[in-house]
Design goal:
CATH architecture of the largest domain: 2-Layer Sandwich
Low-confidence stretches: none
CATH topology of the largest domain: Dihydrodipicolinate Reductase, domain 2
Number of domains: 2
Shape: globular
Helix content: 40-55%
Bound molecules: NADP nicotinamide-adenine-dinucleotide phosphate
Structural class: alpha/beta
CATH superfamily of the largest domain: Dihydrodipicolinate Reductase, domain 2
Number of helices: 14
Length: 358
């Protein structure tokens, strides 16, 4: 149970994962490319450490081979994931990550056959993106097996970490119109801010949400097979700011400009503090509809997103190392079932909007 490597250990989310892992009796080896950041952490938690870059594939494969599992927490995963997947395949090591990037999910799916042949489990997205939404999507899809449309809305209030912001900066230039949806099984560009709608969440609050990309455009298609998927979120900026982003987004396609923006973010963005993580709540809504217009809805509320990422991620590690899942590339709900999210403290799922007693 203790023979696993945490890569990206000294990042904001990596540290939360260490806390959760240690509390549950694990002793992961801490890894990353900078030993000066690893050593103090390893000393603090009395854990082993390993300085390891992602550039040399053979070296990486040799380094991960002695471990049963790699928990990859270093993003942007568009840059970091594939070298680690290759190394895990070569080293016969299970792999989980906390990506939310659609292209990364799709890339991990390509390893399905190879993972199965080697009796390995590869799971992308064992964090807030996509554990709760994948579980909720499959919950409504299981109740309506002929569903052709899936809508998922996510209200996760609170600030983002530097890593999340920088991952978004990496993603933005790839989105032609600022957003994307899935139609007839294919990704379709979608103008940012268009098709906003009102959703009432289980805390009784009605919020305006708008189609924005979330990992489920890849994972829910994979796990439910529903061909039309829209993921909605509260637009994190005002409509004026959205127009500003649309105008200046092409600049982010220029690598030096993007790197400069990412350096500024890394220096200035800190992520939610302890109080925000302990008190924050996240709300989700799912609706599956079939061609006759029959709909099934469900609501979920759970803990703050970064805290959930650490809690769900460590539970995923435990389940894989306990042999509770089949081999292959899986989504979290495929691997652990639709009720996996309910194992996370304080999570509630509703078939009807609960009555709010004020
Ligand atoms: N799925 C979810 O719900 C969820 C939740 C939380 C975070 N995330 C994602 O997880 C990632 C990390 O987030 P964070 O908040 O922890 O960010 P962070 O504090 O900026 O940490 C990023 C970590 O990744 C490492 N890293 C970045 N590029 C690397 C590379 N090319 N090679 C090796 N290591 C590299 C960094 O090491 P250096 O300092 O050496 O660069 C650092 O350890 C982001 O992509 C974020 O979007 C997802």
């Amino acid at each position: 149970m203790n023979n696993w490597l945490l890569y990206g250990a000294y990042g904001y989310t990596g540290r939360l994962i260490i806390e959760e892992a240690v509390q549950r009796g694990h002793k992961p080896v801490l890894a990353g490319r900078n030993k000066d950041k690893l050593i103090p952490l390893a000393k603090l938690y009395d854990l082993g450490w390993l300085e390891l870059g992602l550039d040399d594939g053979d070296k990486l494969a040799t380094a991960v081979a002695p471990f049963d599992l790699v928990f990859h927490a270093a993003g942007p995963f568009t840059i970091t994931s594939d070298p680690m997947l290759r190394a895990c395949l070569a080293g016969k090591t299970h792999y989980v990550d906390i990506t939310g990037e659609i292209g990364v999910f799709e890339n991990t799916f390509h390893y399905d056959e190879a993972a199965r042949q080697n009796n390995l489990v590869f799971i992308s997205g064992v964090g807030f993106d996509v554990v709760p939404s994948d579980c909720l999507a499959n919950y409504v899809a299981d109740k309506l097996p002929d569903a052709t449309e899936l809508e998922l809305a996510i209200a996760a209030l609170g600030s983002a970490s530097a890593g999340t912001t920088n991952t978004m900066l990496e993603l933005l230039p790839t989105l032609k119109k600022g957003s994307v949806v899935r139609r007839n099984g294919r990704y379709q560009s979608h103008s940012i801010g268009q098709d906003a709608k009102q959703v009432t969440f289980s805390n009784g609050r009605t919020r305006t949400v708008t189609p924005l990309p979330w990992g489920d455009l890849a994972t829910a298609y994979r796990s439910t097979g529903i061909p039309n998927i829209t993921t909605y979120m509260i637009l994190p900026v005002s409509p004026t700011m959205a127009r500003f982003f649309r105008l200046y987004r092409p600049l982010l396609a220029i690598k030096p400009v993007r790197r400069l923006a990412q350096t500024i973010v890394a220096r200035n963005v800190t992520g939610p503090d302890e109080t925000a993580r302990q008190t924050g709540r996240s709300y989700l809504y799912a609706r599956a509809t079939n061609q006759r217009g029959t709909a099934v809805e469900a609501w979920l509320e759970t803990m703050e997103g970064y805290q959930l990422t650490a809690v769900a991620g460590v539970r995923a590690v435990e389940k894989i190392l306990n042999g509770e899942t089949t081999a292959g590339t899986l989504t979290p709900a495929q691997a652990f079932g639709v009720d996996f999210v309910l194992e996370i403290e304080g999570t509630k799922r509703f078939d009807k909007l609960p009555k709010i007693i004020s």
